[in-house]
Design brief:
With 165 residues, this protein is mostly helical. The protein has five helices and no strands. The longest helix is centred in the first third of the chain and has 43 residues, at 7-49.
Length: 165
């Protein structure tokens, strides 16, 4: 049996909490990068056919990028509470570290998957705009609806972190 003692155990809770904050930024950022890239590929095709569509498809391309921003907000919020961004480092038990980790997971996981789902909707929207530029508002609305679930996950993470402060 391995016995963990001393300095390692003193910082284990903090390390778990930091890992949660890192995953919030990392996973939602990966989803956003993949999503923005997917829509960018579709948008490039539409713009090559009609350069005047650039501003219409740009909005669709930007939408999946918001989840990465939400993850970054949660990571900064958590790291700030933990003293990483200034102040004194928090001393956390493993249980407290796991609570921080869990608080960061809603936006980490939902951010990853909703950005990709939103991108799929936005890619379809680029197809709509390419054929019927006057339907841009409908294409944006369909892609933006997916955002609701990312906002819910952001809210849960914020409320959870606020409860831990």
């Amino acid at each position: 049996m391995i016995r963990l003692t001393g300095e390692f155990m003193e910082y284990l809770g903090l390390a778990i909490a930091i890992f949660g904050a890192v995953l919030a930024a990392l996973l939602s950022g990966i989803g956003s990068a993949k999503g923005v890239g997917m829509v960018g590929e579709a948008a490039a095709g539409a713009v090559s056919e009609d350069p005047n569509m650039f501003s219409k498809v740009l909005v669709l391309q930007l939408l999946p990028g918001t989840q990465g921003l939400y993850g970054l907000v949660i990571a900064i919020f958590a790291l700030s509470q933990l003293g990483i961004l200034g102040g004194e480092l928090a001393v956390l038990t493993v249980s407290e570290g796991l609570m921080y980790f869990a608080a960061c997971m809603p936006i980490a996981i939902v951010g990853l998957f909703s950005a990709i789902a939103q991108a799929r909707s936005a890619v379809a929207g680029v197809g709509i705009v390419a054929k019927r530029p006057d339907q841009n508002g409908k294409a944006i609305t369909m892609a933006a609806i997916v955002e609701f679930y990312a906002i819910l996950a952001l809210l849960v993470s914020i409320l959870s972190l606020t409860g831990l402060a």
